[in-house]
Amino acid sequence: MTIATERESPVLMTYSKTRGLGALLTAFMKQRRMGLNDFIQRLATSNSYAWLQILVLTLPSHPQPSPSQQINLGPSSNPTAKPSDFHFLKVIGKGSFGKVLLARHRNDDQFYAVKVLQKKAILKKKEEKHIMSERNVLLKNIKHPFLVGLHYSFQTAEKLYFVLDYINGGELFYHLQRERCFLEPRARFYTAEIASALGYLHSLNIVYRDLKPENILLDSQGHIILTDFGLCKENIEPNGTTSTFCGTPEYLAPEVLHKQPYDRTVDWWCLGAVLYEMLYGLPPFYSRNTAEMYDNILNKPLQLKPNISNAAKHILEGLLQKDRTQRLGHTDDFEEIKNHVFFSPINWDDLTAKKLTPPFNPNVTGPNDLRHFDPEFTDEPVPSSVGCSPDSSLISASIKEAAEAFLGFSYAPSMDSYL
């Protein structure tokens, strides 16, 4: 089963208790950080019949590949990059498979976010395909302003390294929890930039599948940067579908919960959920009780409070349409989203050219300004092993096996990519 377990980006645990929402929001944050994998583990050990019903709903319909199956990842390149090329400065995020570190290249003094993943952990959870999918999608992001860029990747016998754009304006989730909700113009701006990024991925026949505020970053000027592509599904044609159960509980579309085939409109459902959360402070069908939340997503009518414009209500009703064939974006994908009246104030050409002034400036002073990262991570010492390559004479058979599973991972762009 495909699951959402990565939580590479930092989250500051401070929610407003305005209007009595404090306890609910705190529970919401703990639950979403738990991730779908841990959630399923809870279900498996629960005696509750309601939990068991949901467990049956989430069981995979196809067998897991055996550990001995070899994944054909293509020919391996011969990169010259190595961990010692970098001075690793701070831990800025953590996940199931490793850490994200702020690093400065020793030759050009440029700052990067380097995602360092443990091969053993990936192989243990049979997540090789998702890691390679993330790498493949990153290779295609060079030309879009609202997608994080991959500079190159490399590996040692034990670890994989993604050398990524360093984005230090903070997660959208971080800013949303501090302010509880956004005014409509600010929410519209972010939603437009996110939609532009999703539309670009769809044009490449990629479905994102895991849109949520934790995966949406702000750059130093306040523009959106979409990150974390581990759950992307490639090669989905305009009328194509897939059926893998994956995502994050609060944002799962009804067709995913029903274990029905779904298409790229699943991303437009998630866009609606994120817009709703920006306007109201919580996802549209949220409940502390996950079984109840799933039932809400499947059966409860969308409820909209009267403190937003008619255009905002209309787009939320279109995006959060339970029947995907009636959902906004089903007929003409991103073009339908662009042409909705909610976005009438947006000049899309200026938006993608970054000519529109963001509604909020993170006011970072430079690469060393870490104010928007959780001290839980930045206070952690940088592991000494992260910048070292193992002695080949000491590499065990299991480590060599892990190395062979990721043939073709390393990548360095051609000079044409920068022209």
Question: Could you characterize what this model shows?
Answer:
- The chain is of the alpha+beta class and 419 residues long.
- The protein has helices at 22-44, 49-58, 119-124, 128-139, 172-179, 184-203, 254-257, 265-280, 290-299, 310-319, 334-338, 348-352, 375-378, 397-404, and strands at 86-94, 98-105, 111-118, 150-155, 159-164, 216-218, 224-226.
- It has a five-stranded antiparallel beta sheet. The chain has a two-stranded antiparallel ribbon with strand order 6-7.
- Strand 6 (216-218) and strand 7 form a beta hairpin.
- Helix 6 packs antiparallel against helix 8 and helix 8 packs antiparallel against helix 10 (310-319).
- The longest helix is centred in the N-terminal third of the chain and has 23 residues, at 22-44.
- It is globular, with a radius of gyration of 21 Å.
- It starts with 21 loop residues before the first helix and ends in a 15-residue tail after the last helix.
The span between the termini is 41 Å
| Fraction of residues in H or I helices | 25-40%
Shape from CA axes? globular
Number of helices: 14
> What is the H/E string?
HHEEEHHEEHHEEHHHHHHHH
Strand order of the largest sheet: 1-2-3-5-4
Strand content: 5-15%
Domain Protein kinase: 86-343
Domain AGC-kinase C-terminal: 344-419
Pfam families: Pkinase, Pkinase_C
Enzyme class: transferase
